[in-house]
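Field reference: "sequence" (input) and "structure" (output). Example, Sugar-binding transcriptional regulator, LacI family protein:
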Amino acid sequence: MRVNRRLMLQAAGVAMALPMLIATAASAAPLRIAAIVQSLNTEYNVLWADAAKEHPALADGTATLTILDGRQDVLTQSNLFDTAITEKYDAVIFIPVDIDAGNEPLERARKAGIPVFGSNTVVSKTELYDAYINSNDVEAGEMLAKAVIDKAGDDAKIVILEGMIGQSAQVQRFQGIQNVLAGKPNVTVLGQNTANWSRAEAITLMENFLTANGDQIKGVLAENDEMAVGAIEGIRNYGLAPGSVPVAGVDGIKDALEAVKRGDQLMSILQDAKGQSQGAIDLALNKLIDGYKPRAAVWDANGGSLAWNEGKEQHYYVPWLAVTSANVDDVLSAH
């Protein structure tokens, strides 16, 4: 009887403790992730944010995601880091406005014990990231230049529309353009200036280039699609037929894809917003949860092309997709 009574008491204790353990697990607060983006006035950042919100870990309550708009301003982004630190977020995902100005707020977050993960554009001190995922912008610049020069010819006269000076995408895409131009000594750059990733600014800049150079311009390199679409409008406003001057851009936004379909734009280099955003969330959760299994479709573990490698890498590159008239219908249907 003593043994049985002891067993009964132990069993009763387990029975009483089990509901408490279940209740504790059920009531555990979800992990809180802040995403500090460049600007929600740019289509790519909106695509990035929308895709991030669809991550399965948000749907099942594992984590929450707060999108914080940097308004294309380094001071605003710095202040948003202060907000994330004060409110004690578990992790920050960062799309910096400026390649150098983003270093200091990232360092503040690390000193506060908050891990930071990069996505899309990067800071110059990439060693500050716990991990980061983006696409190779030097490669994008090379793809831009090769496509336009192959179409326009090795002795073509071209213009270049740059992004916001100092952002990593602008710096690295221009580096890629220069890499190609170094091997094309007969190509002449008639004009080069920033349109700040803006369609409206690109319209004006392209009109100015055409006013100064007329139909000498045989190709346009735009470091993003917003500017490519703006350049096409500038060409139309000048009285030339869209498509008569080859234009290429980066990002794969819908208006650019439609322009490729119409024949107005030679190529759009699609940047995988879903892969970059959901991949960054996986990297953050991998840091915060022991034994975490990635859930984004971009990873090879889930049928994608990017090797997860147990989340051990510090840097992951999401591949580009060159969209031309040959594959634009398939890409548009997938969107």
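The CA atoms of residues 102 and 123 lie 6 Å apart.
The chain has two domains: 31-135+273-318, 137-270.
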